[in-house]
Amino acid sequence: MTAYVALLRGVNVGGITVKSAELAELFRGLGFAGVRTVLASGNVVFETDSADESDAGALKPRIENALRERFGYDAWIVLVTRERLIGIIADFPFDAEQEGWHPYVLFGSDSAHLAELAAAAPDLDPADESIRAGDGVLYWHLRIAVGSTSSPFAKLTAKPRFKATTTNRNLRTLRKLV
């Protein structure tokens, strides 16, 4: 069995409401085992043993299509294996426990978009926020007082061209997912 984590973008914000029980039901209906949702922000942990579905590239569009059909919104997910998520958490390059700061990981399914976002790093004020590239992710350390929707990097990631390929999570949420 391969354990995966599906990170849904834009769930339970902006008028898109997806109840955790219904989300879990959808994943079970797709034939996945060990399904559980974590928090109400679009996090699903599941397992699959189907040989043809062991590749995240095949699973991603199948799940996105099912979400679109069931919940009626433009669904986008980033899909990672549990094993890979453990490595991403371990590689967090900043002090995740620093008081007054939020530790985030920005996941991406398009390497060109992640590279474009990473190019913003030199322009950020390190007294407020920093980003560092990882393996298929950007690590983001943000001073709480700046705000996760109003910082320069947050505004950049909110641009429509990144909507379908990126989503971010707090490191504490990721630990709960593991």
UniProtKB/TrEMBL annotation:
<dbReference type="Pfam" id="PF08002">
    <property type="entry name" value="DUF1697"/>
</dbReference>
<dbReference type="InterPro" id="IPR012545">
    <property type="entry name" value="DUF1697"/>
</dbReference>
<protein>
    <submittedName>
        <fullName>DUF1697 domain-containing protein</fullName>
    </submittedName>
</protein>
